[in-house]
Amino acid sequence: MKQRYILCLLFTGALIYYGAPRMSIFAEGLEGIFAIGWLVLATFVVAGNLAALLYTPKGTGKGKGKKLKSKPVRRVKSRSFG
User: How far apart are CA 15 and CA 25, in angstroms?
Assistant: First the structure.
């Protein structure tokens, strides 16, 4: 799972590296709104992937760690009087 977060961060970094210099946030009209919106959403993507990368619990991968055992279910016998 961490490889996916790192890959998304690298891909987003490449998009920002190539896209940001070509955009003008000070442009008027739709071009400026698009540039600001694009950069805000790219920032959200980077922040979300960093948060997921930094705050994932350790040992949650497949086959790692101890398996949690559920509590045994207590069976109650039902009685009917009739």
Answer: 16
pLDDT in tens, 22-38: 999 899 999 999 999 99
State the pLDDT at residue 67: 59
Q: What is the 3-state secondary structure (H, E, C) of 36-54?
A: HHHHHHHHHHHHHHHHHHH
* Residues of the chain below pLDDT 70: 59-68, 82
* CB-CB contact of 45 with 82 (8 Å): no
CB contact burial 58-79 (16+ within 10 A = b; e otherwise)? eeeeeeeeeeeeeeeeeeeeee
Place of tokens 């959200």: 44
Q: How many CB atoms lie within 10 A of CB 34?
A: 13
Q: Is 30 left (phi over 0), alpha (psi -120 to 50) or beta?
A: alpha
